[in-house]
Write a structure and sequence with these properties.
286 residues, globular, binds NADP nicotinamide-adenine-dinucleotide phosphate, three-stranded parallel beta sheet, 2 domains, alpha/beta, 10 helices, Rossmann fold
């Protein structure tokens, strides 16, 4: 293998240690700990796994976490009512809605109902607007994690050519924005981009947030590039076992790239660490 792995688990562990110290200082100063509420609607097994790992991560750094489960049959009004209660709860500084929501519920209405100062996923239009206008308050966790991973190997992004594949609000579009704020020259690619391989080959730094397992093969990657793989797809193998795949064809891209994040163990742990950091930030501002 040519590429050096960027170890998201190790970087997240360091970040979590810093957060734990800051939480301790917060508790000494205020007499209470930051609190995160996770709202899970329905019984998507992957969502339960994610919420559980976020709950454990909170416990490790001393953040209080409450998990609120609502049945898949909940009406939109019932979900909004629950958010009203969490918005009013002084012990809760961060509210996390685990996505995806059941199709009967309008996700953007739900997210817009979270009090912006408790919106630790930072997807409320007010937080996105502040970010877009260059006055960020809370910033989405996965893009922050991507920036951290990139700057662990390329601290200064001035003049770097970056290609971000994917343009969702949750990941791709916001990651591209954060990178442009760091003075990188950013190309935002998506499913309508013609000749994606040629675009990607120009990238000093390539970020993929697509959700198509192993779409990005070695011929998309400039030799020596930094490659950040955000994709997570559960793939059922012929024997019935489930494996987790990124967007990058790891074995072949690792022969070409300079630095590469693994899946799992790359972006995922950083996303959770930044959720903790955003919860602390929200509590400090309260
Ligand atoms: P999404 O909303 O489905 O967006 C996918 C993006 O990929 C879209 O912009 C789409 O383009 C683009 N795309 C799809 N097929 C493409 C193709 N063949 N060529 C080029 N672009 C293509 O997904 P998301 O929420 O951004 O998530 C993306 C992936 O990241 C998923 O695997 C998700 O599970 C993972 N994820 C990981 C973390 C983590 O912490 N590691 C966090 C969040 C998400 P159009 O806009 O043109 O449709």
């Amino acid at each position: 293998m040519v590429a050096t792995l960027i170890d998201g688990r190790a970087l997240a562990t360091n970040l979590r240690q810093e957060i734990a110290q800051d939480v301790e200082a917060f508790q000494k100063a205020r007499g209470y700990v930051p609190g995160l509420a996770a709202l899970l609607v329905g019984d998507n097994p992957a969502s339960h796994v994610y919420v559980n790992s976020k709950r454990k991560a909170c416990a490790q750094v001393g953040i209080r976490s409450d998990v609120h489960l609502l049945p898949a049959t909940s009406t939109q009004a019932q979900v909004l009512e629950k958010i009203d209660a969490l918005n009013a709860d002084e012990r809760i500084h961060g509210i996390l809605i685990q996505l995806p929501l059941p199709t009967s519920i309008d996700t953007s209405t739900i997210i817009s109902h979270i009090a912006p100062h408790k919106d630790v996923d930072a997807l409320h239009p007010q937080n996105l607007g502040l970010l877009f206008s260059g006055r960020p308050n809370l910033v989405p966790c996965t893009p922050l994690g991507c920036l951290h991973l990139i700057q662990s190997v390329v601290p200064k992004l001035d003049g770097k050519h970056v290609v971000v594949v994917g343009r969702s609000l949750l990941v791709g579009r916001t990651t591209a924005l954060l990178l442009s704020f760091q003075n990188a020259t950013v190309v935002q690619a998506h499913s309508h981009t013609s000749n994606l391989a040629q675009e990607c080959q120009r990238a000093d730094i390539l970020v993929t947030a697509i959700g198509k397992p192993e779409l990005i093969t070695a011929d998309y990657v400039k030799p020596g590039a930094v490659v950040i793989d955000v994709g997570i797809t559960r793939v059922t193998q012929p024997g019935g076992t489930i494996s987790i795949k990124g967007d990058i064809a790891f074995d072949e891209v690792s022969q070409v790239a300079g630095f590469l994040t693994p899946v799992p163990g790359g972006v995922g742990p950083m996303t959770i660490a930044y959720l903790l950091k955003n919860t602390l930030t929200a509590a400090l501002k309260s």
